[in-house]
Amino acid sequence: MGLTLLDGWVTQARHCLSPHFNQRPFKEVSLLVIHNISLPAGCFGLPYIEQLFLGKLDIEADNSFKELQGLEVSAHFLIRRDGELVQYVSCDDRAWHAGVSQYDNRQACNDFSIGIELEGTDDLPYSEAQYLRLVELTKSLMLSYPLITPARITGHSDIAPGRKTDPGSSFDWQRYKAAL
């Protein structure tokens, strides 16, 4: 059946509006970037990812959070371990997920990409529910944004090599791409 997008928002997702976004310099959306995140590292099901993306992270909650103080970051989507889909920024807007990045000789991937965060780490397997939701979301995004093709889906590590490693060796690219 698929997911429905309306004005850049997936209607079936839980919406948590992040203040960390702005308008795209062009209307183009032509790249999908897969990330992972866990806060604290390796801990799942906690409220800290959402707090980070909403600019409300309590940096006193964990010693590792001190380095995140003042960080303004967001993604369009988060897929939790149980498959829950959370959307923070409209796909029509620029989320701040890629940082310093390059793809196909173009700088600043945030300008033309959609960022999907998977709750996880580089070296722990992702859940079945996450792969199912990711495939469903990707198919819906490719219908709404036809410049996104399987060849234009990449990992954060590929657009920011040496700086980022996600989604990591635990992500099964072959399984994911075959399901598209």
Total of DSSP H or I helical runs spanning 4+ residues: 4
Radius of gyration: 15 Å
Number of beta strands: 12
Biggest beta sheet summary = 6 strands, mixed
**Helix/strand structural class:** alpha/beta
In spatial order, strands of the major sheet run 3-7-6-11-5-12
Kindly state the percentage of residues in helix.
Answer: 10-25%
**Uncertain regions spanning at least 5 consecutive residues:** none
Mean pLDDT: 97
What spatial form do the alpha-carbon principal axes imply?
Answer: globular
Distance between the termini: 14 Å
How is this structure best summarized?
With 180 residues, the protein is α/β, with parallel strands linked by helices. Helix content is 19%, strand content 22%.
What does this structure look like?
The structure is a single chain. This protein is α/β, with parallel strands linked by helices and 180 residues long. 19% of the residues lie in helices and 22% in strands. The protein has helices at 48-53, 128-144, 156-159, 173-179, and strands at 5-6, 9-10, 14-15, 21-23, 31-37, 77-79, 85-87, 93-95, 102-103, 106-107, 113-119, 153-155. The chain has a six-stranded mixed beta sheet with strand order 3-7-6-11-5-12. The protein has a two-stranded antiparallel ribbon with strand order 1-2. It has a two-stranded antiparallel ribbon with strand order 4-8. β6 (77-79) and β7 form a beta hairpin. The model has no long low-confidence stretch (mean pLDDT 97).
